[in-house]
Each structure stands twice: as C-alpha cells, then as structure tokens.
Amino acid sequence: MHSNLLPLIFTIPGTAQTLELAPLLHMAQQAGQAILYIYRAPETMQVTLKEDQSPLTAADAASHASIIQALAAYTPGIPILSEEGSDVAYSVRQHWPLFWCVDPLDGTKEFIKRNGEFTVNIALIQGHTPILGLIYQPVGERLWIGGTGIGSFRWYPESNTAERLQVIKRSSPMVAVGSRTHSAPEETAVQAQYGVTEFMAAGSALKFCLVADGSAQLYYRHGPTMEWDTAAGQAIVTAAGGSLTTPDGQPFLYNKSNLRNGSFICKA
Predict the structure, then answer these.
(1) Does 2 map to a domain?
(2) Is the dihedral of CA 106, 148, 33, 140 positive or negative?
(3) What backbone torsions phi and psi does residue 239 show, to the nearest 5 degrees?
(4) Is 198 annotated as a binding residue?
(5) Model pTM?
C-alpha cells in the first residue's frame, strides 16, 4: 500500500516561483503514449543514425514534439534544451538562469531491442544544477520524480499514490547497477574498489531510479553521456539522499559550453 501523497507544488529555490507538478506528470504520460504508439507497431519503425552514429526513431521525434509543445504552454518563460533540439548556441544559453533539459526517449537502443527499458527524462536546471527531475517508463507506467525541497517519489498512476524514496547506504550487500549496452573495464575496477558484491543491469535512466529507491548503492559510468541523459536522474537521486559527482568528488555541472558529460559516480 502506498499511502504517501505526491507533492502538488514545487517551489524553485531562492524564488517565490512555484510549479504545479500534475501537468508535468501528465505531459510525461502523453509523451509515453506517443512512444508506445510506434513501439506497438514495429513494422512501421524506421531507424536512422545521427551524426554521432546513435540511433534515432520516429518515436524520439514524436515524444520530442509532444513535450516541447506541453512545456512551452506550461512555463512559457523557461527555455528548453532537448536532445532532439539541442542546437542552441552557448552564447545564448549561457545566460539562462533556468531551463528544461529533456531527453524525449532515453534508451533508443533498448527501444529498438524491444525490452521496455526506455524512459522519458525531464529535468529543470537552475544555474548549473538539476533541481527537479522526472523519469517515466512508458512500458509498465512507472514514474519517478524528485526535487530540491520535496524529496523523491515513485508515483503509481493507477491509484494516484506515491512511495517516498530514500537511498540505502550500506556496504553489505553492496549492489552496483550498470548499463545493459555500455560497459568499460574501468567500471569493473571501480566496483571492486567499493567492494561491490552484486551487480544489476538496467537500461536508460532506470539505473538512477534503482539507486534512489535503495535497490543499488553504486552506479559508476566511465564513458561519455550527454547532459539530458543524467539531469533528471541526478535530481531524483540527490533528493533521495544520494549524490552524483565527478569521480574525484567535484560537483557535476550542467549548461556547459560542451553538453557532453565526463565520467561520473552516483552513490547512495
């Protein structure tokens, strides 16, 4: 039984500006429906390659269009940076005090493999820090949300109830979570340094959710990611009592001149 009520209002830190959270949940669900429409008709699925050779499907574009339209109506004064619309010059975005950072379909490879482990990621960045994050898994209708001052929750849409999330700091068993499709020897080495005894594999931003809900204690990523891959997850993990930093413990920052991330370590 999940008796917690999801917070209705989010206050942007240091301001009097508030956001109602219900429309944000709804827009993630709407984007998920756009994705599932294509997912359930695999014969129509066409895959193209972007410049970096990462895959792109019609579902990416459909989710992007749905979210951009909804966010523009939800917060007309807050700019949007989306993976499928990321060509905003740094000379413009460096002056943004707030912006939405969106991955309309995280885990396109999982989508193509049809294993269900893909997500919609929406984060609000203040300065260089994620302050609100939402991760929605359309298959199974699983949704996580967390932010500064409200904590982190898993929301159950069928009952409109929520479960408050809290990381579990422990060393035995020490569970690491990692990618299904990306791995590096350096990641295994770091897991050994932390005395990891169990390993879980998960796709997309679901790895952050497993740290936030206490299922795992460590997620180290050696290879590059992009800001929209990590922003929502960082907000959720941080609000659940965990951390996401560079490997040497420095703050993991956003709205950089280059949107590519370096390695990071996410811990309970």
Answers:
(1) no
(2) positive
(3) -70, -20
(4) no
(5) 0.94
